[in-house]
Amino acid sequence: MSALISTFLALTLSLGGPSANADGADVDIDVHVPDLARLQTRPAEMSYDFKGSWAELLNRKLSEAGFHADDGNTFGRHTRHAVYAFQKHHGLEVTGVFTEEMWELLEVQPEMTWRREADRVEVDLDKQVLYLIEDQEVELIIPISSGNGGTYRNKAGNPTRARTPEGKFAFQWQANGIRVSYLGELYRPFYFSGGYAIHGSPSVPNHPASHGCVRVTNWDMDLLRDYFELGQTVYVYGKYTEPPPRETAEYPAPEYT
After folding, report:
1. Most buried among 161, 164, 196, 229, using CB within 10 Å?
2. Which residues contact 155 (CB under 8 A, 6 or more apart)?
3. Where are the chain's structural domains?
């Protein structure tokens, strides 16, 4: 136990009990006792299955910053993927381990280039993250796995490159539930370009691994569907194309395709 906490406990014990006034009657002294865990040095790092008040604080801070973390005081699966997204967004090594040096970055408000669509989805294939923007503010930052660039055989049996289409799109149709295609199962997919969708998957590694769709975890897809709408604008960029050009309210940039 540190000297600071020992001194604090001694002071609390000396002040916390009843005290006698001049007439000999007991008088209760109201002493506020803070959470002793918060007086301790924060951990050098936290990873999966870490529990306690520091994990609870991290979960709250991640959620406030737009990352989909667990509730409560456990560093669970949701928090691990939230830390993946946090590290991808900030250009850090993607380990899933939250270190002491990262706390300051949680106070940095994520910002996106202004675009004419106040509510939209942006998929950055370079960072491997999805940004949900509401009223020009970043609401959520979700880790993804996109097309891996390899070759596979399409439904007609012809070789096809596993690339995620890039450009400006809109959600065209969706399926609420599990849709089975010749490439596998897609959980609650929202299609933005032909057969390419943003969908939930039980496998979302920290690198491009799909046939071209944008994979997110099933729990992230459940959350995103509360925001997704048919006709909503979707920007996809970062692998073979640059992000859309910067716009301003007064001087919109040329249409991005």
Report:
1. 164
2. 182
3. 38-102, 120-237
